[in-house]
Amino acid sequence: MTTIRVEEAQDISGVRAVNEQAFEQPAEADVVDKLREVCDGYLALVADDDGIVGQIVFTPAPVEGPGRTVSGMGLAPLAVSPGRQRQGIGSALTKRGLEMLRESDCPFVIVLGHPEYYPRFGFEPASAYGLTCQWEGVPDEAFMVLILDAAAIKGVSGVARYRDEFDEAM
To answer: Is the pTM of this model over 0.70?
Structure first.
């Protein structure tokens, strides 16, 4: 049975392996390692089934608008071992992470991802809320937001930013 839980120190090598396998390169695993070391507010969950089979990470992500900045969270990366994909593990990780963020009064979550996948969790194109991605050339439908507290983000628009550590993987 797969258990979704907060990442622990003994999970690090398994998390790295899952990210390298899922993305077929080390860039995302390198970013996760750096974030774990330097990021205040880092939230990572793992899917454990007698070993790590998936991981999701959320990190602080501000929206820098005229006269006001609001901090939410950015979802990235979400990784599931190739042999365990399409079994609901990614969905379980995402749902649990979003539940935890709702409970913590997080106002929004951004994601740069597959437009066929993330809307099932309530994500919408960020442009509908006046939010743009920090990176040039990102397709509108791939940059999405889930508003968790509409009052906290009311009237805020502008550039939504992932942490600088993600620049290396882009």
So the answer is: yes
| pLDDT per position as a tens digit, 112-136 | 999 999 999 999 999 999 999 999 9
CA distance 164 to 161: 8
Residue 62's φ and ψ, nearest 5 degrees, are -85, 155
Task: Return the structure tokens found at 97.
Answer: 């992470």
| Three-state SS annotation for 26-68 | CHHHHHHHHHHHHCCCCEEEEEECCCEEEEEEEEEEEEEECCE
- What number of other Cβ atoms are within 10 A of residue 131's Cβ? 23
Residue 85, number of CB atoms within 10 A of its CB: 14
Q: Which two tokens stand for residue 92?
A: 């379980």
E strands of the chain, at which residues? 3-6, 43-48, 52-65, 68-80, 108-112, 124-125, 131-133, 143-147, 158-160
Q: Per-residue pLDDT averaged across 66-82, rounded?
A: 94
Q: Which domains are present in the chain?
A: 3-169 (3.40.630.30)
Dist CA 94 CA 92 (whole Å): 5
